[in-house]
Amino acid sequence: MTIEHDALGIPQDALRRLASMRPGQPTAMFTSDLSVNEFLLVREAGFRPLGLVFGSSIYHVGFQAGRWSQNQELGTLSGAMYHARELAMTRMEAEADVLGADGVVAVRLEIEFKEFGSDLAEFTAVGTAVKADTATAPDGFGWKPNTGKPFTSDLSGQDFWTLLQAGYAPLGMVMGTCVYHIAHQRFGQMFSNIGQNVEIPQFTEALYDARELAMSRMQAEGEALQAEGIVGVNLLSLPHRWGGHTTEFFAVGTAVRPLRADHSIPTPQLMLPLADR
């Protein structure tokens, strides 16, 4: 039996299920992976959960030759890791669109290498699609960023609530990646370091450079969204299966903007959730 997909690769069965969950449909019932506390805080922030949305891409990660005696980015692998995540995110956003969502909160972006192929990895994005109540935003404010897609955020339900109380809105998850090969030490270098406390400059420079490339690419995505800043940034080192001298540095966070030009951040006491006051 052949499973039909739309142009973005979303199964038709998924599209029919999501269409039946749209507000106003007789069978509408939301699903969510938010905890009970997170669900209540998202509701208190003025958003209604619509449904759990998902995007997936199983990607063949290729091989790249290089001069292993020097520090260098492996551009082919960097491109593969970025494109695979982008496919998963795009499909998750498309599912949120089917639900008529304004955004997706508590997004998890994960990777898993498969046993049925050593070079095959599944990239997944999953989160809860939400719709803003009519009176949640200032007059004339649109929740969707300049891309026209629903906003995305990897903030927890509580952090999402706090962000809104502080007068900021999420624009989208932004990310940067860099797969980097760290040159091997020559035998003479290794021998001379035995028994000494000493910095290894080529290792320091390689890791510093790789992190900086990942961070600068994440910031460039934030600039493209016209963000004021990026919150909740995680900078991860992911070894995957490329060996001890090749690693991926991955930077991800939520780009934000103010709800209004003249906003001010409330005092900490006023920003406590109802349950903590």
Order of helices and strands: HHEEHEEEHEHHEE
**Helix count, per DSSP?**
6
> Average pLDDT, to the nearest integer?
83
Enter the CATH topology name: Translation Initiation Factor IF3
Q: What's the gyration radius in Å? A: 22 Å
Low-confidence stretches: none
Pfam families: YbjQ_1
Family: Belongs to the UPF0145 family.
Overview of the structural elements:
This protein has 6 helices and 8 strands; from the N terminus they run ααββαβββαβααββ. The longest helix has 24 residues. The relative contact order is 0.15. α2 packs parallel to α4. The protein has a single domain, classed as Translation Initiation Factor IF3, CATH 3.30.110. The chain is an alpha+beta fold and 277 residues long. The chain starts with 11 loop residues before the first helix and ends in a 19-residue tail after the last strand. The model has no long low-confidence stretch (mean pLDDT 83).
Key traits:
4-stranded mixed beta sheet, Translation Initiation Factor IF3, single chain, UPF0145_dom_sf, alpha+beta, 6 helices, UPF0145_YbjQ-like
Sequence-ordered SSE layout with sheet pairings:
Blueprint: H1 12-20, H2 36-44, E1 47-60, E2 72-73, H3 75-98, E3 103-113, E4 120-132, E5 151-152, H4 157-165, E6 168-181, H5 187-192, H6 201-224, E7 229-238, E8 246-258
Parallel strand pairs: 3-5
Antiparallel strand pairs: 1-4, 2-6, 3-4, 6-8, 7-8
Helix pairs in contact: 2-4
